[in-house]
Amino acid sequence: MDIKKITDKFSVTPQITPDEIDAIKETGFKAIICNRPDGEGPDQPTFEEIETAAKKAGLEVAYVPVQSGMVRDEDVEAFGAALKDLPRPVLGYCRTGTRSATLWSLHEAKKRPLPEILAATKAAGYDMSGVARRIANGGRTPTDTGDAKFDVVIVGGGAGGIATAASLLRRKSDLSVAIIDPADVHYYQPGWTLVGAGVFEPDETARTMASLIPAGVKWIKAAVAAFEPKNDAVILDGCQVVKYDRLVVAPGLKLDWDAVEGLPETLGRNGVTSNYRFDLAPYTWQLVREMRAGRALFTQPPMPIKCAGAPQKAMYLSGDAWHRRGVLKNIDIQFMNAGGVLFGVKEYVPALMKYVEKYDATLNFFHNLVAIDGAAKKATFKVARPDTEPAEVTVDFDMIHVCPPQVAPDFIRVSPLADAAGWVDVDQATLRHKTYENIWSLGDVMNAPNAKTAAAARKQAPTVADNIVADIEGRSPVAAYDGYGSCPLTVERGKIVLAEFGYGGVLKPSFPKILLDGTKPSRAAWFLKERMLPPIYWKAMLKGREWLAQPEPIKVGAAE
After folding, report:
1. Annotated active-site residue in 34, 94, 307, 403
2. Are the C-beta atoms of residues 540 and 455 closer than 8 Å to each other?
3. For residue 276, what is the domain's CATH number?
C-alpha cells in the first residue's frame, strides 16, 4: 500500500486489497472512493469485495469508476457528488492513483488556484500538467478555438522580458511578438536601495507597463496558469490559450515572505522593513532617520536571491546615515547572514570589510531568519554552522531590515520547464532550454549559476535575441552569455564598490582600471549608479539599445 497525501482531507493510492482495509482505518481514513472499474486486471479485487471489508471496518465507500485515460466532465461531477457525502479524510484509489488524483484536481478547479493544485499533486507524485488546461477552465474540457498565435511569446514584462522584445524587433522587425504580464506597473528595482537611503523618491522607480511595451508588441494583460511545451502553448488564467513558435520565459522570481513565521503580519510596522518591496523602502528610510540608539539587524537568506549584495547595501547606507548624524556609537549593527562569507567574490571583500569595521557591525554567519515576533521585537534565527548541530537563537531588535527567502514562481516550479529545484532549466551559455529547443529563459527565473541582477538581464537579452533569430534562420546558436553580473555595493552615500563578475567569480570590469577600479570604493561608481544607470535602464536597455551589452560570439566547436 502506497498512500500519497494530497491534502489533509484527501489522499490517493494504487489498487488496494480487502486485507489492507484495517490498516487504512488505523491510518485515520473514514471513507474510501473507488475510481477503477471492475475487471480491468486479472488480479484486481472487485469493488464489492472492497466494500464488504470496508463496511465491516466501519468505513464508508463510494464507487465512481472511470475508464483509464478518459476522465470525462460527467465523471468529475459524479466524483464531486460522491465526495460531498463522504466523511473526511477520504482515500481514493484506482490502478495507479492517477485517475483519483486527476478527478480531485478537476473537482477542485473552481476552488483552488491552478498552481496550488499542480503543486499538491506533484508533491504526491502525480503530474497533472497534461490536464492543466482543463483545470484552468474550471475543471471542464475547454471548447474555445480562438487561440492567439505569435512568432515569439515572452512570459514576463520585467527587465528581461521587455529588453528581449525590443532587441528582437531591432534584429527582425517583421516578427509578431507578444508579452504576457498581468501587472499595470513596471519597477526599476535596483533603485529601491537608494529609496531606502533617502536618495531616490519611490515614484522615480515606477512607470506604467503600457508606456514601456515596445511599439509593435502585443501586451496580453493576464497571468500564466501553465505551460504545454509539447503543444507550443501557454495557458492563461481563464483558459485562454496562446500558441507560439518560440517562447521566452522571464517572469522573475517569488519573494517568499510566508517562509518566515510571523513576517507578513508585521511588515511595515514594529520596526520591520525591507528594501525588496516598493512600498516598504520608504519605511526603511523613516526608521533610519528616527533611530538614535538600539539594535539594528540586517538579514540575508540562503542563496539564490536577487542582487546578493542588497542586504548589506542597506546596512552600509544605514550605518553611514547614523555616522553622519553622530549616533552610530549608540547603535548596535548586526548582519545576520545564512551564508558563510560576506561576499562571494573574494576580490571585493577587503574594501567591504573596511566599512564593516567603520560602522562597527558584527557579522553573524550561518544565521538564517526563521521567525519574527514584531510586537515583542524579537527575531529567531536557525544557526547551522558546519560540523555542528543546528540550533536556534532569538535576538532582540529595534529595527530589522529583512531580505526574504526567494524561490521560482509557483507556476514555474510545477511546470515541465523546471529543474529539480524549480528554476527554468537552461544551457548556461546559450540560455536555451535543455529539453525544449524552441524555449529560452533569462533573468531571475532561470538556473544558470550567475548573480540575479538587472545588469545580468541587460547582457542576457541580446544573447537570447541573437540566438532566437539564428534559430528562425535555421542556424545554430551564435551568442554566448558569460555569466556577467554587476552589484554596485553602496558602502556610503557618495561611494560605491562596483562588483562586476562572471561565471566562477571571474572579474568582468566594464571600464579600464585607470578610470574605475571596482575593487575600491569610488565616487565615479556612485555617479554611475545614481545618475547614469537609471536612464540607461529606461532609455537604452528597455528600448533595445545595447550599450556595453553586445553578445559574446559563441566559440567555434563549443557544445550547447
Report:
1. 307
2. no
3. 3.50.50.60
